[in-house]
Design a protein that fits this description.
The structure holds two protein chains of two kinds.
Chain A lengths: L1 H21 L2 E4 L1 H12 L13 E2 L8 E4 L7 E8 L5 E9 L2 E6 L5 E15 L4 E14 L7 E8 L7 E7 L8 H6 L2 H11 L3 E4 L2 E4 H8 L3
Helix pairs in contact in A: 4-5
Chain B lengths: L1 H27 E3 L1 H7 L13 E2 L8 E3 L7 E7 L6 E8 L2 E6 L4 E14 L6 E14 L5 E11 L5 E8 L7 H6 L2 H8 L9
Parallel strand pairs in B: 1-6, 3-7
Antiparallel strand pairs in B: 2-4, 4-5, 5-6, 7-8, 8-9, 9-10
The chains are: A alpha+beta, B alpha+beta.
Chain lengths: 223, 200
């Protein structure tokens, strides 16, 4: 009888540890948590949702251009949605890398995610003086503020550093500024051409020069 | 008696003259909210009463001017009202002046002035303006190097203002966004200034 109990306990411990190995570290970004909390308090959500409540979606309302730089192809970007009581939707981006997941909501109905840049990143820990190879995902938003609207912002998700994955706002325009000049300035000419095609801009300024999108399409053979 | 009346009239005229000059100056002189916070001032403070003197730093900070910003005048200033010094910049453009300063944890500024045209929503008015991006080294603890960018805006005849526009605490000095936006020539200009910059 005693041996039987011991075997059961061992099996139970094994099962729990196996479950833990297979489980992933999933979380909402800070902004997303805040937004979901507000929606719950205002009665649009019956309960605070978890990551599993967000379902994969293929919607024109959420179709950003995703640019993955060399060495960062292992980052998975999923477009997800949560249906609210009144049929409104909360869109979010689920970013998955190395067993870790972070879900970042589009925290306002007037926000449109227009581009996602995925790249390798080296995090330097100043306390231990060590470098950690990680991934960084920059999300470029068109901020809705009426018609026509020009505001922009960039939120960045950081993975695999000393802390769990997290999202921080790094750029916020304060006057009419769309697309964000710093974001487009950080892209290569080929990447920025892809972005201008997706946003239907005929010409654009990059690195102090004006470029015609049509000419660059031919140069980079993008169509 | 006549002498007294003359004296009273003279005093009234001087009082009104000083009052109107002050009002006129107050409408042209602005201080950013960030600067007021750095100085520990209330947002509604009378800006003309705050004393700024010429900065005592040894060499000027790098200042890159792009097309359309030649009328912009820059002065490096400081305030000594507290037991420490608060450094800042005084920008004058088209008759308007804005003082923008920084807290002691932000230093070694690089300034980039650029012009822009915007079309306002709904009214579709064309407005011209200039913006000055000020990139700082932000010290965020032991061995930590962060970057922070404040942007000063002068838009047509509206009151100028400044706001934080970018920040990066992930040991990212210089800000990758700011660095990528500069042209090769601008980086050279900044690196050649006597401020120990090494933009790539």
């Amino acid at each position: 009888m005693r041996i039987k109990k011991q075997i059961i306990s061992i099996l139970l411990v094994l099962f729990i540890s196996l479950f833990n190995i297979n489980s992933v570290n999933a979380a909402f970004s800070k902004d997303c948590k805040k937004h979901l909390g507000k929606e719950f308090l205002s009665g649009y959500l019956e309960s605070i949702p978890n990551e599993l409540d967000f379902k994969l979606v293929d919607d024109k309302g959420l179709s950003p251009l995703v640019i993955k730089r060399d060495g960062a192809e292992d980052v998975k970007i999923d477009k997800v949605v949560l249906l609210r009581k009144n049929h409104f939707r909360i869109y979010a981006i689920k970013i998955i890398w190395d067993g870790e997941i972070i879900t970042h909501c589009l925290n306002n109905d007037h926000f449109t995610l227009t581009a996602v840049l995925v790249e390798k990143h080296t995090h330097y820990n100043s306390a231990t003086m060590t470098e950690i190879k990680t991934r960084r995902v920059s999300m470029h938003f068109h901020e809705g503020c009426g018609s026509p609207c020009y505001f922009s912002r960039v939120d960045v998700a950081y993975f695999g550093s000393d802390a769990p994955p997290n999202v921080r706002n790094e750029i916020k325009s304060d006057i009419y500024d769309y697309p964000n000049k710093w974001f487009t300035g950080y892209l290569t000419l080929q990447e920025v051409t892809k972005f201008m095609i997706s946003e239907d801009f005929q010409e654009f300024e990059w690195s102090g020069r004006i470029y015609k999108t049509e000419k660059l399409i031919k140069k980079f053979k993008l169509k | 008696m006549i002498k007294d009346i003359k004296l009273i009239l003279k005093s009234i005229i001087i009082f009104y003259a000083v009052f109107f000059v002050n009002v006129a100056n107050a409408k042209k002189l602005f201080m950013s909210d960030i600067c007021k916070e750095a100085l520990g001032l209330d947002k509604k403070v009378n800006v003309t009463r705050i004393k700024f003197t010429k900065s005592d730093n040894s060499w000027p900070h790098p200042f890159v001017k792009r097309k359309g910003t030649s009328n912009l005048i820059l002065e490096e200033v400081m305030n000594k009202d507290n037991d420490y010094r608060i450094y800042g910049h005084k920008f004058t453009y088209n008759g308007q002046t804005l003082i923008h300063c920084r807290t002691p944890s932000f230093w070694n500024p690089i300034l980039l002035a650029d012009s822009f045209d915007i079309t306002t929503p709904l009214l579709l008015d064309e407005e011209k303006g200039i913006r000055i991006d000020i990139h700082y080294y932000s010290n965020c603890g032991s061995g930590c190097r962060g970057a922070h960018v404040d942007t000063v805006n002068f838009v047509s005849n509206h009151s100028p203002f400044a706001r934080k526009s970018a920040s990066d605490i992930e040991n990212a000095y210089y800000s990758r966004w700011f660095e990528a936006y500069l042209t090769k020539e601008e980086k050279e200009q900044i690196n050649n200034s006597d401020n120990h910059h090494s933009l790539q």
